[in-house]
Amino acid sequence: MERAKIRLHVDHPLGQGQAVPLTQDQAHYLFSVMREGPGSKVALFNGRDGEWTAEVAEAAKKGGRLVCLEQAAAQLNPPDLWLIFAPIRKERTDFIVEKATELGCARVLPVQTDFTNAQRIRQDRLQAHALEAAEQCLGTYVPPVDDLVALNALMKGWDPARRILWADESLVGPAETLSGLAPGPWAILIGPEGGFSEAERARLRGLDFVTPVSLGPRILRADTAACAAITLWQAALGDWR
Amino acid sequence: MERAKIRLHVDHPLGQGQAVPLTQDQAHYLFSVMREGPGSKVALFNGRDGEWTAEVAEAAKKGGRLVCLEQAAAQLNPPDLWLIFAPIRKERTDFIVEKATELGCARVLPVQTDFTNAQRIRQDRLQAHALEAAEQCLGTYVPPVDDLVALNALMKGWDPARRILWADESLVGPAETLSGLAPGPWAILIGPEGGFSEAERARLRGLDFVTPVSLGPRILRADTAACAAITLWQAALGDWR
User: How many A/B residue pairs have CB atoms within 8 Å?
Assistant: First the structure.
């Protein structure tokens, strides 16, 4: 069966013969915008059950029903890697969420730091952005995006079993070899533009579960650092091996 | 001496006591926009001589003169890595040039492929974008951005001494260990959205100097693939070691 060109994220369970109701927005998109109708094939994913090819069984103005025919791709969950980052300008924040989704992070945690300008974030908008990134890159997993928390509060309640790889912008030199790191749950921590404050740096240096790492001899923007750190972790400990 | 906050790229040689004339645009920016004047400190780089702290010696409406006081950062050239990529939408093309500059590529070569929409590029705009990326990230090197050439023509005249790491989107599986690759001059090749055509793939597979590599089990956008491939190469063979 040819892979369907239109791809939709649904909340409904997916499986052989499973009927899936459409929301009004989805029905509008499918039948009015894309001009599809009964018999059309659509790819569905819900973040848990892989990708399914479904057929339009009923099309109406304000709803509709699809039926799952066969699984087109198995569920691909990311390794147990979280990304902690300090939101920066809107465009670059969107970019970081997009890249975390594409490169395979399991969860995204925006944090407020001493040099972060953002007092709050549009969590719903960022979550929608992660979903869109998964939709576009044929991903079957959408990382949950948390609401903004203060870095200090996050570190206070942190489970030390999950180690943190800290992209320490003061370590401008040869990068650590990440292949020496222990496997297990990890999080990558990326600072805002302007880096971390001295107080934050002292605190991070004092935490046993935090490993500072250098990302080469150049100064990287926060979004570039996020891409580079996730890539190195994936190649050393993740599912790129 | 404190690092100057304003950073300018100039074409002029830089060195101890060297006088550097300002263009009309630079004078306007420094004296009218930024309200600087005689005695102000400015950071200068020209892509060859590192970064210099200079002092404004003369300020006029349509020009001016700076004098270099001391070198603030040594010249940091990238390793001998080129990036070949197929221009996509404007925003993502800009992004690839920016990331190639930040992550440390020596040259950027946009290519036209069977699935590339672009018939021509604004080379001057992309070059300015590389310069801006270096300016903002305190880089001292600006990679030259070539004009658009056809992939076939580029491969025909290619010096086989420079090996090509081809991010082959059909290899969706565990990534190669790049640490096994031989050092020397390299280029990374990233395809457009939609990948390479079958004819292009067959041709690339037949070239001795081309090594296909996988970037993990997920489908990556072209800009993400560029970031990931440069990162892996830098960590394995470049100056991130």
Answer: 99
pLDDT (tens digit per residue) in B63-113: 999 999 999 999 999 999 999 999 978 888 999 999 999 999 999 999 999
DSSP A32: I
CB contact under 8 A, B232 and A235: yes
Q: What is the mean pLDDT of residues B206-227?
A: 94
pLDDT at A172: 65
Q: Is B35 touching A (CB cutoff 8 A)?
A: no
Query: Can you tell me the ipTM of this complex?
Result: 0.92
Summarised one tens digit per residue, pLDDT across range B176-196 is 567 788 899 999 999 998 889
Average pLDDT over chain A, rounded to whole? Answer: 93
**Cβ A102–B235 below 8 Å, yes or no?**
no
Domain residue limits at B15: 7-73
Query: Does one domain contain both A28 and A89?
Result: no
pLDDT in tens, A1-16: 667 889 999 999 999 9
A231 with B228: Cβ contact below 8 A: yes
Tell me if chain B has a CB within 8 Å of the CB of A73: no
A97 neighbourhood in chain B, CB within 8 Å: none
Q: Are residues B166 and B182 in the same domain?
A: yes
Supply the Cα-derived Rg of chain B in whole angstroms. 20
The predicted pLDDT at position B177 comes to 65
CATH number, residue A54: 2.40.240.20
Residues of A in contact with B235 (CB under 8 A): 175, 216, 232, 235
Kindly report the CATH number assigned to the domain that includes residue B221: 3.40.1280.10
B contact residues 95-134, partner A, Cβ 8 Å cutoff: 95, 99, 102-104
Residues 6+ apart with CB under 8 A from A180: none
| Number of Cβ within a 10 Å radius of residue B3 | 12
Q: Work out the pLDDT band at B4, boundaries 50, 70, 90.
A: confident
Distance from CA of B64 to the nearest CA of A (A): 30
Q: How many Å apart are CA A238 and CA A222, to the nearest integer? A: 21
- A51 and A112 inside one domain: no
**Do residue B159 and residue B224 come from a single domain?**
yes
Distance from the Cα of A110 to chain B's closest Cα (Å) equals 20
B216 contact partners, CB below 8 Å, separation of at least 6:
A103, A104, A234, A235, A238, A239, A240, B172, B174, B175, B228
Measured between beta carbons, which residues in chain B are less than 8 angstroms from residue A220? 102-103, 137
pLDDT of residue B175: 55
Strand bridging mode A81-85 / B149-150 = unpaired
Beta carbons within 8 Å of A158's beta carbon, 6+ residues apart: A164, A207, A209
